[in-house]
Automatic annotation (TrEMBL):
This is Tropomodulin. Pfam families: Tropomodulin (PF03250). It is found in: Cytoplasm, Cytoskeleton. Its main location: cytoplasm. The gene is unc-94_2. SMART domains: LRR_RI (SM00368). The lineage of its organism: Eukaryota, Metazoa, Ecdysozoa, Arthropoda, Hexapoda.
Length: 377
């Protein structure tokens, strides 16, 4: 019991001992930083001269994002302005300085024919650079005789059929597939040359007279089924307004093409009003104009009134990107139209493209089924 009590007493006294940890003071360049904790920074700055303060202000971090770029640079130009900038004289001065400044002397002047450093020597070859290993293929006598007696054109055709594209060029491959005969002068080492472009005559300008067509539309001419003002320049807004007013009462015109004629939103609204009242128009093309996305929405919305238009095209406008909001609005309008069959619009989002394509396909199927049912009856 005495030994046990002695061990217990030692453990009791050792558990009451406390340990203290000492941390070394922070130092910079061997100096204790705690000495500067109680210093007054304002008092130190008041003791500096203006020159010393300017030097201290220049000591900034050039990568500090909290400072504007103009304050990160320590360079200051104290020279007075000598006058307005003369670019020509400045360039002449720079060129003059460049010509007058002597070149740095070479440590070792260049001597023709002197080799400096280690000269490259080509490795020796045994003269046998070709690979001697050959692939042996066992063929029947019939196939062997056929291949041995085949001409080069027949071998090329066989390679094209087997899909060995690397053994021939494009002209040989397409000629073999289309069975047109191999081009003359092209063998295994033949080089494909560019096909000479065909020269087509320039497209003649549009000779349609806007005044005459407006009068015919206004008179409801039964022979005028297609109106084409494409690429006609300098058509006044008054003529467009007269045309759109005439469309309201017209009952024979089926195709209206106004491509690259400078239509704006104001004229597009006039056209939308005419489309709401015209019930015979089947195709409307207003591509390559200056209609905004909102104007395109107004045009598509106007198609829901009469529901007679089957094709509408309005790509390549002032704004190339319609935006998600406009595309979703156009999608909802198209899905409400049971007669539209073809739509020419550049849509960026897959959802809008898929929904519109599915709806157009349903409209086409509905018309096809009604036509088949009418024929069978």
């Amino acid at each position: 019991m005495g030994v046990t009590e002695e061990y217990y007493h030692e453990w009791k006294t050792s558990s009451k001992k406390t340990t203290t940890m000492t941390t070394a003071p922070a130092k910079l360049y061997g100096k204790n930083l705690s000495e500067y904790d109680e210093l007054d920074v304002d008092q130190l700055l008041s003791q500096l001269s203006p020159e010393e303060i300017s030097i201290l202000a220049k000591e900034v971090d050039p990568d500090d994002n909290l400072l504007p770029p103009s304050e990160r640079c320590s360079y200051e130009c104290n020279k007075e302005a000598t006058g307005p900038l003369n670019r020509k004289k400045l360039i002449e001065h720079i060129n003059k300085q460049a010509l007058e400044t002597p070149d740095l002397p070479e440590i070792k002047p260049y001597v023709p024919g002197t080799v400096r450093g280690k000269k490259w020597v080509a490795p020796e070859t045994n003269g046998n650079t070709e690979h001697e290993d050959k692939i042996a293929i066992d063929l029947d006598d019939e196939y062997g005789d056929a291949l041995n007696s085949a001409s080069q054109e027949e071998i090329i055709d066989l390679a094209a059929i087997l899909g060995f594209h690397s053994m021939m060029n494009q002209d040989q491959y397409h000629a073999s597939l289309l069975n047109k005969g191999q081009p003359v002068g092209l063998g295994w080492d033949g080089v494909t040359k560019a096909t000479q472009p065909k020269v087509y005559p320039p497209e003649p300008p549009n000779q349609t007279d806007p005044e005459e067509t407006i009068k015919r539309v206004l008179d409801d001419d039964s022979k005028l089924l297609d109106l084409n003002w494409n690429n006609i320049k300098n058509i006044s807004d008054e003529k467009f307004e007269n045309l759109f007013k005439a469309l309201v009462e017209n009952t024979h015109l089926e195709t209206l093409s106004l491509v690259n004629v400078g239509l704006t939103d104001r004229l597009a609204d006039k056209l939308a009003e005419a489309l709401e009242k015209n019930c015979t128009l089947r195709v409307c093309n207003v591509e390559t104009n200056f209609i905004s996305p909102v104007g395109i929405v107004h045009l598509v919305k106007s198609l829901l009134k009469q529901r007679s238009l089957e094709e509408f095209r309005a790509t390549n406008q002032r704004s190339q990107v319609l935006g998600n909001k406009i595309e979703m609005e156009l999608t909802k309008l198209i899905e409400q139209n049971p007669t539209i069959l073809r739509l020419g619009l550049h849509l960026e989002y897959n959802d809008a493209r898929h929904r519109i394509a599915s709806h157009l396909q349903r409209n086409i199927d509905r018309i096809r089924q009604s036509r088949v049912g009418a024929n069978s009856a």
